[in-house]
Amino acid sequence: MKHEQPPLTSGGAVPPPGEGQHAVPPAPAPAGGAVRRRSAGLSGKLLLLTVLFVMLSEVFVYVPSVANFRSTWLKDKLTTAGVAAAVLSETNTIAPRLQEELMRVTGAVAISLTHKGRRSLIAMSGLPEEIRYVIDMEEETPWSAIRDSVGVLFSDGSGLMRVSQPLPMGSSAGDDVQKVDIVLPVAMLRKDMLAFSGRILGLTLIISVITASLVYLALRWMFVRPLQRLSASMARFAEDPEDTARIIVPGGRDDEIGDAEKRLADMQRGLSRALHQKQRLADLGLAVSKINHDLRNLLASAQLFMERIEHVPDPTVKRLVPKILATLDRAVGYTQAVMAYGKAREEPPRRRLIRLERVVSDVAELLALAEHPGIEFESRVAEGFELEADPEQLFRVLVNLCRNAVQAMEAGADAAHVCRLTIEAALIEGECLIRVRDTGPGIPPAVRAGLFRAFQSGAKNGGTGLGLAIALEIVRAHGGRLVLEDAGPGATFCIQLPQRAAPEA
């Protein structure tokens, strides 16, 4: 759409398209802000979003619709004026009454025809005003139609527009093509476009309400209600997790909601079983602690009796009493370990910079590794290797790991078997790695799953199975990890301790 300033010529001819000054049409005013609604819960948000998206889709439909209405409106005016003008122009003169009737029917201010390159004024009424828009229907594109439609809607409706297009009955060869050119008030087009917009708006509101309601009800039935049911089931189950009657019953759906219901039911059943089992274990632990206390007193009394019997000058007694005392000592140690594990909680580590070879030396001295007749002990810790850790707790970890390694190699040792225990350390990317490696029989796959659980890993060697559990607890308190590595024969445990400072090796 083009803007043009000059009025109609005094000779009655209409200026050809393209003449005059051009101006940019007024920009569309911003649409009014949407009213915000505060809604509690998923249902209200879903309803609001549904209405907004439906209205947005209707806007995308409205804009091309109003542009098409404008183009059709202009073409109808041009066709009516062109056909009537062509018929009337066959005579040399047109009666004023016919001119007035033609102007009334078309609503035009001026009508002219172009034939063989000549423009002739057919009819004109009123005083000429400013021609603001020049439109050639042949050159109009869908995008320009949309742009000009918005410009007319948001204009003040003043001024005139000149619209032209070829007549359907005109010749297609050169100057023989007839062209109709009419001048129309902008206000008339704007009035009809506003009326059309009102009808579209009413229809849009009706469609939006119906569509939004159907979509909202469908989404609420398909998603919101099942999610509310899941949420209510979680809240009800949280009040009493051990009550199996509170476990959700899946609705039988085969979609993601149904899968979520099934998974929630499985999780609730598993949690209920776990809580029930923990309660039973707690009750069992209380009973065991009482029995263990009495058993320890009985074993202590039995030790005293055996120590007295040891002095009896009988060869059989002399031979059996040490074995019985060793068995009693082991039983007392087992009961003490059980009580200690049940009561003790490891204190937070008091980390400080220590030399690792000193700790390894103390471990070797405590376990008499250097004097062991069947095991070679090798420390590959570099002299002066430093790390940040609690020395007492790290000592306990290494003692537990080395004792387990010694017991494993002693149990499966023979004359041809090389029994070697190695401790090595390295600092990699701010993490201290300490490896305890042995050449024993290794860890069977069936044992690895519960390797670090209390009372499980050490039963086959006559131990309590608490060493690895305690070691893991200490390492985790340091923020590290204790892992079993698959590195050659035997077993290799790796202690991974993060370093806050930068220890030197």
UniProtKB/TrEMBL annotation:
Keyword Transmembrane: yes
Enzyme class: transferase
Region of interest called Disordered, as start-end residue ranges on this chain: 1-35
Record-listed E.C. numbers: 2.7.13.3
Pfam families with a match to the protein in the record: HATPase_c (PF02518)
Residue intervals of the HAMP domain: 221-276
Protein's UniProt name: histidine kinase
Annotated TM spans: 46-67, 200-219
